[in-house]
UniProtKB/TrEMBL annotation:
Protein name: Membrane transport protein MMPL domain-containing protein
Key words, A-Z: Membrane, Transmembrane, Transmembrane helix
InterPro entries cross-referenced by the UniProt entry: Mycobact_MmpL
Coiled-coil features, chain-numbered ranges: none
Transmembrane segments: 159-178, 185-205, 211-229, 250-271, 277-299, 319-344, 528-546, 553-575, 581-598, 610-629, 635-658
Keyword Transmembrane helix found: yes
Biological classification of the source: unclassified sequences, metagenomes, ecological metagenomes
Statement: the UniProt record of this protein carries the keyword Membrane: yes
Any one GO CC term of the record: plasma membrane
Length: 664
């Protein structure tokens, strides 16, 4: 069946009928060049007439013997149309190959997670059948539907896989330490309370939920279980007949506050995805904290610690005490090493929005091929605004004139091709009359036997064109309102830097590139996150100074700095560059690191404390280690950063153990 087109370009006869009243005011650049010399024009004129079957000449000769109208329509159609309509199908020949293109618009409801997967799967199945039936035919596909389906399938797979493996690993850890079924249930209910709290907040605050939010939110399992570990190990020691020790109570509260403050930075993120992650984790942590504080103490009598886990913590304490005695040379050596590494290989940043994309290479190649066919692979979109249609058209013509100076062969599809400004039309009329008076156009009278009219033609206006068959194309590129006129065009053949430079010179001209705009937002937010990391370090110093002492605060902030800097350098070395998501990981590492530093300073190198922190670190590294196996670059960067950071803080945080001066 033929494709139903939403807009059919007017036929040559329709165009001739529309533009013929304004013929000598509408001159193409090619035609104007031929008017420079009489011999040049005569050669051009005879060549055009001798082209048998030229549809532009045959459609316009009776209306304009000078062939200016034929040249105007022909040149503009060549620039406006890449495709022809053959047998009801869009067709283009490129490098000797014939392509047929089907363009389809889908309703937004068909782009949901499950519907996009089902619909894309059905289409791909049919395409594969056709490719098998017709081996000489090659059918390729691309578009939002297929990107959505691939990313959704990948995210659902990773969410199920990572979440399932993480839960199994956490259950194994809990059972090894507590050796009771009820301890597994308590840990599971702590995580479940966090997930329920996060889900409720998401449903209340957002109409739709990004699927990648749920992938990032798997990390909530690793954070929420920390509360259960610290709570259950403290309760199992039974130092108090009812409830937690005072140190654990204050440490749990301080942990909640610091982690929540860390994730609050996401609430103002330019991407809804990041805001949703922030809301989900904050609400989930509050729920997990409430469950830990209010429910876990009710099961205190049933909790015990296995001898093997206590033995392991005793061995770790010996190692940590030995390292603690060498803290000064260790920290000096690490600081010098990190400084040297940053000098040898400085870090760099990559803010490309493609980091959020997990589409296959096959689909990306298809998209590139299709954009090349559509002439949009290297094109940029420019919007222009002015107070009136004439001011807008003059602005567009002047802008294009400057771009022509940069590259005479650049391509564009401006509406001023078809609707020149009134000023340009007057100039065209003057040029035509001048050529006529010089005798340049005498050949038209000799060949056709018809004298060129000397009557001054009217000028073409927006109001005239919008009532013609040309209306659909005109309105698709230009809108005129009482107080403002707007148009857009695509441009190729001009470098991005040159185009940006020209755009910035003008008021009312804007470059539209959504991926680049999002990448710029990511860059701005990255700078904001860098500032947040510095601010977090300063707040930590104030918090530690107030709670402990200035000496301890300086030591802890030094350890924190060594951890974050080493994490960033390692990730930069592995990835080749850092992204916003590495800094998000650094923010989480700071929040978790403060937890460890607070628990060590309050509960010291006690077996139950070392055991709880070891369980916390192991569970977090496991959960985030899962994310570092993701095929989505953003998730990989986030998971790698947190895994490396937690590994570093686990071994360095015991170096912070000192008695505060208030106790000495």
């Amino acid at each position: 069946n033929a494709i139903k087109s939403t807009f059919n370009f007017p036929s040559v006869n329709d165009l001739a009928q529309t533009f013929s009243p304004f013929k000598h005011a509408l001159l193409s650049d090619t035609y104007k060049q031929t008017l420079s010399k009489k011999t040049t024009f005569e050669h051009y004129y005879l060549e055009q007439l001798n082209q048998l079957g030229n549809p532009f000449v045959s459609a316009t000769l009776s209306k304009d013997t000078s062939l200016s109208l034929a040249a105007f329509i022909e040149d503009n159609l060549k620039q406006s149309q890449l495709f022809t309509l053959e047998q009801g199908r869009l067709t283009r020949r490129l490098k000797g190959v014939e392509y047929r293109v089907i363009l389809a618009n889908l309703a937004p409801e068909n782009l949901g997670v499950n519907k996009s997967i089902d619909l894309a799967g059905s289409i791909i199945k049919q395409i594969n059948l056709l490719n098998e039936t017709y081996p000489d035919l090659s059918i390729t596909y691309s578009g939002v539907l297929f990107h959505t389906a691939e990313n959704a399938k990948q995210a659902k797979y990773e969410m199920s896989l990572f979440g399932g493996i993480s839960l199994l690993a956490l259950i194994a850890m809990v059972f090894w330490v507590f050796r009771r079924l009820n301890s597994i249930l308590l840990a599971s209910f702590t995580v479940l309370s966090a997930l329920i709290g996060g889900a409720i907040a998401m449903v209340l605050l957002f109409n739709t939920i990004h699927l990648l939010t749920l992938v990032f939110a798997v990390t909530l399992i690793g954070i929420a279980i920390d509360y259960a570990f610290h709570g259950m190990t403290d309760l199992a020691k039974k130092e108090h007949e009812k409830g937690y020790s005072k140190g654990t109570q204050s440490a749990l509260l301080l942990s909640l506050i610091t982690t929540t403050l860390g994730y609050c930075c996401l609430l103002g993120a330019p991407l809804t995805l990041l805001s949703q992650v922030g809301v989900f984790v904050i609400a989930g942590l509050v729920s997990a904290w409430l469950f830990t504080v209010l429910v876990l103490p009710l099961w205190q009598s049933t909790l015990t610690l296995s001898p093997s886990s206590l033995l392991m913590s005793q061995k770790l304490i010996k190692v940590f005490l030995y390292c603690n005695s060498l803290k000064k040379p260790i920290l000096i050596t690490l600081s010098a090493l990190i400084s040297a590494l940053f000098l040898i290989k400085p870090i760099s940043f990559n803010d490309d929005v493609k980091l959020l994309n997990a589409s296959s290479e096959h689909l990306m190649l298809n998209e590139k091929k299709h954009l090349l066919l559509l002439g949009q692979w290297d094109s940029e979109i420019v919007f222009m605004f002015a107070d009136s249609e004439e001011a807008l058209l003059q602005k567009q013509e002047e802008f294009l004139k400057r771009l022509t100076q940069l590259n005479p062969n650049f391509k564009h599809n401006s509406i001023s091709h078809w609707l020149p400004s009134l000023q340009k039309q007057r100039d065209n009329q003057a040029l035509f009359e001048q050529a006529k008076n010089k005798g340049t156009l005498d050949i038209t009278e000799r060949v056709t036997g018809q004298a060129l009219t000397s009557k001054k033609a009217p000028l073409l206006t927006y109001e005239t064109l919008v009532t013609s068959t040309f209306k659909p194309l005109l309105l698709s590129q230009m809108i005129v309102e009482p107080e403002q006129s707007i148009t857009w065009m695509s441009i190729s053949g001009i470098s991005s830097d040159q185009l940006i430079n020209e755009v910035e010179k003008n008021n009312g001209i804007y470059l539209y590139n959504k991926p680049k705009q999002i990448s710029t937002l990511l860059s701005d937010y990255r700078e904001y996150l860098l500032l947040s990391l510095v601010l977090a370090g300063f707040i930590s110093w104030l918090l530690f100074s107030w709670r402990f002492s200035i000496k301890i605060a300086l030591l802890q902030v030094t350890i924190l700095s060594v951890v974050v800097l080493s994490m960033l350098w390692v990730c930069n070395a592995i990835q080749g560059s850092l992204s916003l998501f590495n800094l998000l990981g650094a923010l989480l590492v700071i929040a978790l690191a403060i937890d460890y530093l607070v628990f060590y300073q309050i509960n010291k190198l006690e077996p139950k404390n070392v055991l709880a922190i070891s369980l916390s670190a192991a569970s977090s590294m496991w959960v985030f280690g899962m994310l570092s196996a993701s095929d989505t670059p953003a998730i990989f960067s986030f998971g790698l950063s947190v895994m490396v950071g937690i590994l570093a803080i686990y071994f360095l945080s015991p170096l912070s153990v000192l008695k505060p001066q208030k106790e000495q």
